[in-house]
Design brief:
With 429 residues, the chain is of the alpha+beta class. It contains 10 helices and 11 strands. The longest helix is centred in the middle third of the chain and has 41 residues.
Length: 429
Amino acid sequence: MRSVYIKILLWCFATLLLSLFAFIGVTWFVPMSTQHGVRGGGFRLNLDDAIDAYEFHGPQALAAQLKKYKQYLGDDHYLTDAHGKDLLTGEDRSALMPGIDANHPQRINGHMVMAIRSADGHYRLIALLSPRIDFWGYLPYYLLILAAVALVCWILAINIASPLRGLARLVDRFGAGDLTVRVNSKRKDEIGELGRAFDRMAERIGTLLTAERRLLQDISHELRSPLARLSFAAELIRTAEDRDAAVARLKKEIARLADLVGGLIQVTRAEGDPTASNAEDLRLDELLDEIVEDCQMEAAARGCHIALEAHPQIAMRGDRELLRRAIENVVRNSIRYTPGGGAVDVTLGATKDAARICVRDYGPGVPQDVLPKIFQPFFRVDDSRDSSTGGVGLGLAIAYRAIGIHHGRLWAENVKPGLMVWIELPLVA
């Protein structure tokens, strides 16, 4: 059942029907069974006594006998002839005789009737039963009905309230800082939809809060050195004899600080707002051509070149700018560690469901024990921040998260010589 509204409506309707049929059953079945059991056994004796009173003592004795029946049993009794004529009043009682000799009372013309004939067939005794409502006698049956209705209502309340209480506890835990709690509901109704909406919200908030905390930690850690150098350069301008050199030093430090802040913003956006990407149809081979062309000048300045092998034409859907930055960061990272006169090999291939980009340099590689850490923000194999060996350690982290947004993979492995970085992107969303 996929709707709580419909579920509540049907359960209430079922409860009303259960109560209705139960009360009707108790009202009719219990009096009938009681009267049949109590009166049915002595009904023929009553007939014999009524016949004896009529035959031996006349109509007045019969009237007295029937009055006793009324007094002790509470029912109207009539003694008739074989055709249904009342022997006291002469009225026609034949309409009450269809249920004659029945084993239990029958409803005739709105009355509960028991009728029996004499052994010789000359007489009929008809009783109009008047059910008496005995509250205390019915009380156990009514209590049973109430218990059944209460059970149905309790099951409905548990079915609705329990998941809501569980969700409330999870919300309290989430509000207290436990960002890992999830409902993981399997229900198909509105409560299940509420649980899944909470899971999506928790996932989103958890991602944003984690990214924000990481950004604050990274900024507080990484801005110390650039700010110290800026302070030193500013002081240098006041005291240095060569003010132009001091100004150039200050501009250089400002540019480094701007790169750091820009990288922080970029990596935070990639991690904290993956839904903001603009997906479009693109050619991966053409994108690689543009990236390699843009990086050729930097490679030439370091005395190396880029060799591109991208024969297959691969079309996919993704955020073009995000992918360009990710692949470019990997390529530029390889350029930094490629020795002069060497090359950076960039190849593009494809499997049945994915495109694979390989970027290889011929540098010193990375120690095996720290290889998985190179995609973490601000991680560097060496501790220096010199521009000749790299930036602030955000390039591969940005690439890793950008590829993750496209549901791809990014990993690295040592080769001899150098480092080989793999990018795998699914071709089907």
